[in-house]
Protein 1
Amino acid sequence: MSIVLNHTIVPASDKQAAATFFAELMGLAVSAPSGPFAPVAVNDDLTLDFDDRADVAPGHYAFLVDDDTFDAVLHRLSTWPAVDYGSGVENGWDRRINHLGGGRGVYVRDPNGHSYELFTAVP
């Protein structure tokens, strides 16, 4: 059997708000609570379990996505003026995309400071 990441905990100051932000960004749904978590199923193998924490250390979560998903995320971002996103760490939140690895990529900052990276080709 290969190794598959099944779930990971995403710390948040407000788990429901953080799960909702991520789900809406990615075109997904927040599932029913599972224990103390607000889960979002990313695909058949991976669930992000958002959990309330007093201290949130920002994390980085990277996702390889298809072109249609990338386009849908960019469209949603264009309608969310208060959300920081950009082409890369060195460029800040310049509201642009990058073209690393022959594809397209973007970084999105969530309200807890987490960085979601979406890319269409492996750099």
Protein 2
Amino acid sequence: MQFPPRPWPVGRVEQLEPLVRRVLAPNPGPFTYTGTETYLVGAAGALAVIDPGPDDAEHLAALLAAIGSAPVAAICCTHTHRDHSPAAAPLAAATGAPVIGCAPLVLETSGPRVDAPFDRSYAPDRVLADGESLSGPDWTLTAVATPGHTSNHVCFALEQSGALFTGDHVMGWSTSVVVPPDGDMAAYLASLEKLQARADRVYYPAHGPQVDKPQQLTRGMIGHRRQRERQILRLLEAAPAAIAALVPEMYRGVDRALWPAAGQSVLAHLIDLEQRAMVRREGELWTINA
């Protein structure tokens, strides 16, 4: 993983297009890249805040400074990992704005987590179903349900400009981690195909740079996942194997510190293949079905 050169624009307001500004939170890491990017939508009157980020005093102060005297119509969360939604509550308390967006989710995974854990405190005032919209004076955001990275993940389409706020579902710097049991590879691929069929102009992810060729990227991501699936099947054709043996073969060029995350994605692929009756598990070993 290669980070861009410092200094990063932490706490600064970046104008991306007439209706969209961005503020970077100070939470860089192997799963957040340079940090969570919070988006402010609207130029005239009430704003929407997308993915308010971690409950961090420095980031909250930067958001409030960026908002200034403008009212906030909605605080929108794409999903409830702790690098995305915890700042919703203090921001709502400071602005009086409702929290609107993804559904709440509390789920423990088996074994140590390798991505950000879920925000147990998230309590939305309104959940947006797929295709539902909310509007301000000069903007309309429509929910696009994209389960897979998490079961409650949702993107937001800005109808006035063709931009899509993609949270962690599609990122320009890395593929998304899919961690069972809540993360679901079949759902993730279906959600990628759903976005592939859309005509969005640009993606604004929660981590990393904007994506200026969205359909090209989603096509490549689908191809990458299908290639990983074929790789697993080839390895299992040679001999039954445990995930711990598959990961070193599949991720030879990847930093070993990321192998636990890679193992979770391999597990997600195997569960999908098992549900399609292509493989079966026998204890820790996975075997291809003849």
Protein 3
Amino acid sequence: MMGESVITKIEVQKNNKHRYNIYVDEAYAFSVHEDIMIKHRLQKGKPISADERRGVLSDEERNDAYLKAVRFLGTRPRTNKEVRQKLHAAGYEEAVIDETVRRLETERYVDDRDFAKQWVEQRLRSQHKGKAYLRQELLHKGVGREHVQEALQGIDWEDEVSSAFEIGAKKWRQTSGEPFEKKRKTAAFLLRRGFSNDVVQQVLHKINDINN
């Protein structure tokens, strides 16, 4: 068992002003984020035992996982599952991942319920995806079925028809052939986009009114 040693030097890292190199007994020992240094009151001349060092490194790993997750979330919202996959790929242990995700959920950085609602609104509007397609996307991302169902129920019927009509009318214009053939191809296209048969029939009815 390593006995008690003394911190003999602390220096800020050249490429990251928020991280510090810690020297123990004149030799480099480890590096920590400034938050961990402050938490453990690491300073030159302070004795540090083997147990204390393990505690510091344990907190450092958890803090590092948290910061990595926050950076990952900085580009766009992510689901619980996506954050877990990212941290797992980075090599963190399950206990650290569990703790990190719980903290992120408490701080509302990760919220699958809110994610599902935002995803549905954005994809319906900009990607013109129907409920069936959106359901599969959210389930694939690990969102719970109850959150998926709630988000899909929040879709306004008129908004869904409008989204389907926008791409359905475009598909109709781009399709050659007799009206019945254009109708068949447009319907198949919309169904593949995840729109229900009721929505598709409503869109075809509107297209028919415009073209007659």
Protein 4
Amino acid sequence: MISLGIIGTNWITEQFVRATDITKTFALTHVYSRTEAKAESFIEDLEKENIKISTDLDAFFKEDFDTVYIASPNALHFSQAQKALENGKNVIVEKPSTSTIQEFTILEKLAHEKGLYLFEAARHIHEPIFKKIEEVVEKHRDDLSGATFSYMKYSSRYDAYQAGKNPNVFTTKFSGGALYDLGVYTVYDAVVLFGQPEKVDYDAEFLDSGVDGSGALTLKYSNFDVNIIIGKTKNSYMSSEVYFGRDTLLLDNGGDINHLDWADDNKNITDIPTTKSENPMDSEAREFARIMTENDHASYDKLLQYARTVNRILEQARTSAGIVFDADEEK
């Protein structure tokens, strides 16, 4: 197995480590946390032993492990990934991997120069259910006439924000907001299924902090539009859809996809059989490890192109809406 260091001791890092245990792909050996107590509690919850703890990031990257998984606040991704690559570590970084396309370009160039891997962890595109969506879209591509993707989920941190606190996910300092949290899933949906759009426009609903609480994103392609609805300040139970003229592919969600149906012109709805892992990060852990072990550069280049396109669209979208991150001023 590939030795793994992680940055962050939150629920998503725990989920990723458990996925690597199930798939027997990566072996956790090192943990970085700002406090030793948090790291110890995290390791204890995972029932792991002999894990090296670091509270100093420079010291952490000098340790002997192969790959780092980064799940810190968005604005920290770039500097941490850059430092990892400079120290010879392969990088798996949660989406979005950077705050700006300039940052992404720097990381991509550095990874290439060092002969290392840089993965953006968009876990849902690796799941079997998404592969089934790709099959359906490809089969009916000649009739493709657009899509609507919806992902709106009331944030567990929004109450704190309304109470006058300053959660990272709702600040420009940490590159927060709906687009860069939930929207990235739906942009991945569009890019993987339809490619790069010709035009991007985002109409955002702003919070006082300067980030978007929700919004409507339009991706214009040559023959159709993709409409995206996202939000962190409200809940929506709207399904997502891909249109093929008279027929429609129904997704129960634009980000966390659990069920697929096919609806015909007569309103007959047919279930599309597929599978869903109990741990949604199983498939990406398996695929990243496979690419690294087999040196499958064709698959790697494809994922890198997706990530590059998605990060460019995210920046174009927030620029069109007038969303400015602190990271923009650091260019």
